[in-house]
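cron nightly-structures :: item 1 of 1
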Amino acid sequence: MSRTDLAAQTSASARDLLGVSRLTNAALTRWLHALPGVDQVGCEARAGALSTRSVKADSKRAAIDLAISMIDLTTLEGADTHNRVRGLAAKALRPDPTDPSTPRTAAVCVYGDMVATAKEALQGSDVKVAAVATAFPSGRASLAVKLVDTQDAVAAGADEIDMVIDRGAFLSGRYLDVFHQVARVKEAAGPARLKVIMETGELATYDNVRRASWLCLLAGADFIKTSTGKISPAATLPVTLVMLEAVRDWRDLTGTMAGVKPAGGIRTSKDAIRYLVAVQETAGADWLDNHWFRFGASSLLGDLLLQRQRLRDGVYSSVTYIADDSPSTAY
C-alpha cells in the first residue's frame, strides 16, 4: 500500500466510524465530545485500589522480567554523544552483565541524529530503535518540518517514531488539525510504528485525555503515549487507566489493537507492577507484551535489576552495583 493510499484509507475509516460523508472539525468535535465523560473520583479510586494489590514472590519475578522487557531505554539530552548512545545500547542488550538470563529491554530511544549509531550498536538483536521526532518535545514546528524530521529518522533506520501532538491545537478545539498531523506523520513513518505522545500533563482533565486518545487512534496511531518526560506531571496511573480503556474499547469497536506507553515518573519496581496490574485488569492479558505496552522510564531499570537480584540471591546488592545511566554519566 502506498503512503497516499494509507492516508486516504485513514480518512475514509474515520469518516465511516463517525458516520459522515466529509471529515470536518465540527464532525470530530461532535463525536469526541459525545464520548462518555470520565468520573474523576471513580478513576482515581480505581487506580488507588489497583495499587494495593499484593503480588506473590513467583509472580513478582515474572512481573519484574516482563517490566524489564517493556522498557524503552532512553537518552534525550542536548549533551548526548555517540559513545553515550553506544553505552545505552549495550545496557539494553545486557542489562545485568552478571546474569545473561536477564531480559533485554524493548527499545533504545534517541534523537534522530543518533539513530544510525543506535542501529549499528543493536545490529542483529531484537531491540528496537525508537526516534523522537516532530520537533520533540514542544511540537512547535511546521508540518513540513515534522514530516522531514520523521522521514530522516526512518531513513537512518528507526523502527519506531515517537511524535508529539500539537497541544495548542488540541486545547483550542482544532481537532481536525491534530488528526491530519498524526495521519501525515504516520504516512511519513512508512514501515516504522508510530507512538503518539499526548503530553497528558498539559491536557489538564481526564476527559481531554480520553478525547486525545481516541483522536490519535482515529488518525492511525500504533501506540498512545502519556508524556515526553520533560514536564510535570508526567505519567500517572489514573491517566494510564483512561488510555488503557481507550485502546480496549478501540479494539472492541474496530478489531484493531493499539499500544499504550506511560512515560516519566515511574521509578520503582512497585510502580511498574502497579501499572502491569492495571493493564491486566483494564485492557486484558493481550496487552501484557512489549509489542503493546512499554515503559518510558530509564531510571526504572536500575530498581528492577536490584529487586531481581534480591529475589535471586536473597540479599540486596549495593546501588553502586547497578550502572548509572543518568544523563550526567560520561561515556
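cron nightly-structures :: done
Residues 161 and 194 are 5 Å apart (CA to CA).
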